[in-house]
Amino acid sequence: QRGGGPRGDRNSGDLELEKPPVPHNDFEENALKVLDDIAANQPFRNVPENDGRLLRIMAQSMGAKNVVELGTSTGISGIWIGLALKETGGKLTTYEIDADRAAKARDNFERAGLSDVITIVQGDAHENLKSYEGTVDMVFLDADKEGYIDYLNTLMPKLRPGGLILAHNINPRMAHPPFMEAITTNPNLDTVVRGGMSISLKKK
Ligand SMILES: C[S@@+](CC[C@H](N)C(=O)[O-])C[C@H]1O[C@@H](n2cnc3c(N)ncnc32)[C@H](O)[C@@H]1O
């Protein structure tokens, strides 16, 4: 299974009905092989395959031009988002504090043919995110869980109306209360939680 991690809080119906991705062309086939290789040889707390696919579906269906990811690790979610952005003509900016993982991710994006759509910013994202300029269509939070609230506060003004904030590891054990409070009480956000992922729409 690409992504290496647990399959999350899924019911057996999901597992039974969902089937592996079917590559559309050689480019996708190669990217899927790179994902398999990362999962087998460089796993580090990467998203499970179904979450990666959901990120791709979200980004591509909304025609995202600018996506921001917090927590690159070795690049599994980045590749899934990158596959969407290759089609939409968009760009991903992804933040990673660990130099070794950032270097591995850079190499993996290159192998997947996605270097032209993905920029890695290595260092503490709480600092580096401040200099992000421009509008954001979609945010994926997957770094330090206590930091989600800070990332949210920095990115909310930059998120376009109709934009999405997705956050990983949203379960009773790991969800950080200040972040949950913020995404569930703001009248300008509509939030659902599914399979350990929160999905928040910025309404206006
Ligand atoms: C759960 S992993 C990300 C997995 C990745 N999204 C994937 O699916 O392949 C979390 C990553 O966030 C990084 N991280 C934690 N705190 C950070 C910070 N303050 N700034 C940037 N990255 C951070 C960690 O080093 C780790 O590699």
TrEMBL record:
Pfam families: Methyltransf_3. The keyword S-adenosyl-L-methionine applies. It comes from the Bacteria. PROSITE patterns: SAM_OMT_I. GO terms for biological process: methylation. Keywords: Methyltransferase, S-adenosyl-L-methionine, Signal, Transferase. It is an enzyme of class 2 (transferase). Residues 1-23 are annotated as: Disordered. PANTHER family: PUTATIVE (AFU_ORTHOLOGUE AFUA_6G01830)-RELATED. Residues 7-23 have a biased composition (Basic and acidic residues). InterPro entries: SAM-dependent_MTases_sf, SAM_O-MeTrfase. Its EC number is 2.1.1.-. The lineage of its organism: Bacteria, Pseudomonadati, Planctomycetota, Planctomycetia, Pirellulales. This is Putative O-methyltransferase. One of its GO terms (molecular function) is O-methyltransferase activity.
